Amino acid sequence: LRMTASIFLPFPAQEVLDNLKDRWYQADNPPPDLLLNEEEFLSFLHPEHSRGMLKFMVKEIIRDLDQDGDKKLTLSEFISLPVGTVENQQAQDIDDDWVKDRRKEFEEVIDANHDGIITMEELEEYMDPMNEYNALNEAKQMIAVADENQNHHLELEEILKYSEYFTGSKLMDYARNVHEEF
C-alpha cells in the first residue's frame, strides 16, 4: 500500500488525515519507502500491538505534556490535561473529580516506583494493552454499572439486561478504543 499526497480538506478532516499520515510514516520501518509491507500495515492499523508504535505513542504523550522538556512527567504536568474553563460549581466539581482521578491514576498505577515522576518506561508499561490494570479497571466499571441490586455479583437478569453494554466494552474491542483515545 502507498500513502499518497493529501488534498485540501476542511479542518477536522484534514486533522484526521494528518494524524493518519503521521501513523503511516511511523509504521514505515527504515528504510522509509512510503510502502507498507504486511507487518508494517498491521502496525499502522493496530499500533497498540506494535512495540515501535507503542513507543511512538508514549513519546507523543510525553511531548504534549512535558512542560520542562526533561522527557518525564511530574504530577502537575500529568494533571495539566484539558481541565477547561470553569463556568459554574457543577463544572468545577467535574474538573475537581477529573483531577482527583488523574492524581490517583498517577500515584497508584502509572508511577510504578512511586518517586513522583512518570518515565517513558512507566508510561509505556501502563499503556501496553497486555497490562492487567486496563482489563481489571474495565471489569470493575462494567460490574458497577450492571450490578443494579449492589450485591457485588451479577445475576443472569443483570447480564442479559446489559448485554449490549458488555459486548460494546473496551475489553471486547480494545483496538477500537485505543484508536479513538489516541
From TrEMBL:
Calcium as a keyword?
A: yes
Q: Which gene encodes it?
A: Sdf4_0
> Can you supply one Gene Ontology CC term for this chain's record?
endoplasmic reticulum
Q: Which SUPFAM superfamilies match?
A: EF-hand
Query: What region holds the EF-hand domain?
Result: 53-88, 98-133
GO annotations under biological process? calcium-ion regulated exocytosis
Q: Membrane-spanning regions, if any? A: none
Q: Can you say what this protein is called?
A: CAB45 protein
UniProt lists the family membership as follows: Belongs to the CREC family.
Species annotation: Tricholaema leucomelas
